[in-house]
Amino acid sequence: MPRFATIDVGTNSVLLLVADRTPEGQFQAILEKAEITRLGRGVDKSRRLSPEGMSATLEVLTAFANEARELGAEGIAVSATSAARDAQNGAEFLQAAQKQAGVTVEIISGELEAQLSFASAYMDFGSEAAGPLLVIDIGGGSTEFIYGNSAGRVDFRHSFDVGSVRLTERFIHSDPVPPAERERVTAHLRETFSSLPPPPPASELVGVAGTVTTLYALQHRIDPYDSTRVHGGTLTALQLGQLVDQLCSLPLADRRTLPGLQPKRADVIPAGALILHEALRALGLDECRVSDRGLRWGLMAHRFGASRS
Fold first, then answer.
1. In angstroms, what CA-CA distances link 142 with 27, 45, 81, 162, 267?
2. Are 79 and 121 in a shared domain?
3. pLDDT tens digits along 13-61
4. Domain span holding position 102
5. Rg (Cα) of the chain, in Å, rounded?
């Protein structure tokens, strides 16, 4: 079977997928990895990728690309999202990635990011959904909402410049998070999400990316992380409200010790939890399904699906 790889370079983390394409056109994962490198640190304020963020990301990107080649990947597709889109020196990162890792990084639009995330969720949950499928992709720099019908057609998609890293850097400056800072984040999210159209009746929401999977792992104390226990799970609005209260009240040092939470994500997870909680409120929904897959899976189908070979 032909083997391919995708690497998703996000604002907060870098994710690798190496998969075989079956004769039926499905993809079977051979290897999945994720590392938090914080490429987007400081971008919201400076509009530039920091030397530290680029160095850490390039190191992981090079290692992931080499590992994919060693596993026999015929092609490697690499996407970069919010931080690279916003940064004035994004071209510098692209050139360094080509030189150091030997890969071409494509900076994708927020609209394409949303479309690929929906494609990933639809592959897993579209046939299960009794009605329309909604997808939320919470990243470090942006959050995408996608509304699709049961046949897989996207009817609405939008990328908002709110993400766990961006909101933390913009609004959260104390430890633990005091009520005033939490309220500022909440107010900003409510204003931002007020432009969302009402979802169709009987919609099911699926959340993708690290914030959502981390919150589920926290809720169920899944440590070490186990994708098979996370993928397909459900988070309720009540659980999210309790998680927001817990995460905002705990000092950073204590959050780092919580079962199910990667220590490197502990500083931005309160903002990430607030994003998902307020998204449910804006959509008028009581729960969210959890997907351990995401953009890298959508990119795999987009770039290496049978019709592309």
1. 27, 15, 9, 5, 17
2. no
3. 999 999 999 998 889 999 999 999 989 888 878 888 899 999 999 999 9
4. 3-107
5. 18
